[in-house]
Amino acid sequence: MLDDFFIRALVAGIGIAMVAGPLGCFVIWRRMAYFGDTMAHSALLGVALSLLFELNLMLSVFIVAAVVSLLLLFLQKRGALSTDALLGILSHSALSIGLVIVAFMTWVRIDLIGFLFGDILAVSRGDIDIIWGGGILVIFALVYLWRPLLAATVNPELAEAEGLQPERVRLFFMLLMALVIAIAMKIVGILLITSLLIIPAATARRFAASPEIMAVLASLIGALAVAGGLFGSLHWDTPSGPSIVVAALALFVLSLLPVGRGLRASESLRGGQN
């Protein structure tokens, strides 16, 4: 019989996967994988500030990730550097500043490994409430924003002409990413969040005939990766967060086999192909 902590970890991980799947689809379609890394790296700065000022951890991570998103939009409008250069600067700067702040706080014992790679087995019932509550909020927001988000992904100019306000929609998408990263950090850790966003969505792309089907499949594949990773971690006594990512990778590798290859949802979206 499975222990309570394992059941809690499974429920929490599936909750994150159900939300990360649809968001990850837009990350792939928009070629924003590096943006996901930047948001994830900024989480450590949020952790450091939460400990320094005794703030709620998830709230602090969300605020920092949101500020980084706004800063990126502001710098992009200035046009001084390319987007990938800006992302590189923001990503490594936020991560480094967070590490420096942590180093100065000698009076606080910090489990950096837990923050970097997650500790899903330590999830509490309160954490589950936050994860599923935040996840439901993100899902409802995605359903509401689905059409303008999809239109802005396919053709931003046409979306602008139709009055769908793609820049505002992009800002909302970034805020949703910040929220998911804040609630997912405890599950797979700062360094592995982007993997949970990207790998299930990349796997689903090979079998989906439409964007909506791809989003659903990405959630299901992510949930399967969580279950497989946790059971593998239990059986082989491996770290739970990395085990989940390895399980997701295994599913992606299996999807590369020629048997049963389906249509790609990204074929209906310009820019979704590599």
UniProtKB/TrEMBL annotation:
Involved in the high-affinity zinc uptake transport system. It is found in: Cell membrane. It is a multi-pass membrane protein. Belongs to the ABC-3 integral membrane protein family. InterPro entries: ABC_BtuC-like, ABC_TroCD. This is High-affinity zinc uptake system membrane protein ZnuB. Keywords: Cell membrane, Ion transport, Membrane, Transmembrane, Transmembrane helix, Transport, Zinc, Zinc transport. It comes from Sinorhizobium kostiense. The chain crosses the membrane at residues 6-29, 41-74, 94-118, 130-151, 171-201, 213-236, 242-260.
